[in-house]
């Protein structure tokens, strides 16, 4: 997958909201939100349609198997697709969602990345649920969870994330810092941006840590490590979706 700490749907939700507010042309959305993607289909057309229908905000959900918190009410097809992708974007007014499928193409050593966005029917989503979020509590809970995880794994002699995860996070930060294309839209609340950054890093590291198990660990320690990383993964995904949606609603209705 491309090196970026933020899932594609998080970036599309924020930049897509900028499109819906008329601050950006729909055709500019892929380049702003997905500079690490070479081919993008199904996104611009749907966001343009939502803009024509009067939508003002694009929200995100980051479901995991057994945890579909934050998803709009919808068909089993959308739930299954979004859970498999572990992400989707949706509009709260008229309802409707997009789920990305990211795939590599081309020969080894010269690969590109393509994303196809598939549209699904979904019910409208009450914006007041987003407006009621307490990002201060979300940030505190996430920081506490990170500290507890690191301490518990360190005491058990298990590296929390592993060298591969740390290298991936470093590459993602370097790519993000190379230019404004990796940034987020202007006008977002500082706390929301801070939580997006923290939760995005935590989710990236948890995902990467779960993808590799250090060979030096015994079965019991490896199992405990996986359990703790999955707890962090769930917590980080919820925090990231909440902070992104709070930022999108602010951009849509208050800036």
Total separate domains: 2
Order of helices and strands: HHEHEHEEEHHHHH
> Cα distance, first to last residue?
34 Å
Strand order across the biggest sheet? 1-5-4-3-2
Shape: globular
Total of helices:
9
Report the sheet-strand fraction.
5-15%
What structural class do helix, strand and pairing data support?
Answer: alpha+beta
**Helix content class:** 40-55%
> From the alpha-carbon coordinates, what is the Rg to the nearest angstrom?
18 Å
Characterize the structure shown.
The chain is globular, with a radius of gyration of 18 Å. The chain has a 5-stranded mixed beta sheet, with helices on both faces. It is built from 9 helices and 5 strands. It has 2 domains: 8-131, no CATH class; 135-239, no CATH class. It has 255 residues and is of the alpha+beta class. The chain is 53% helix and 11% strand. The longest helix has 35 residues, at 219-253.
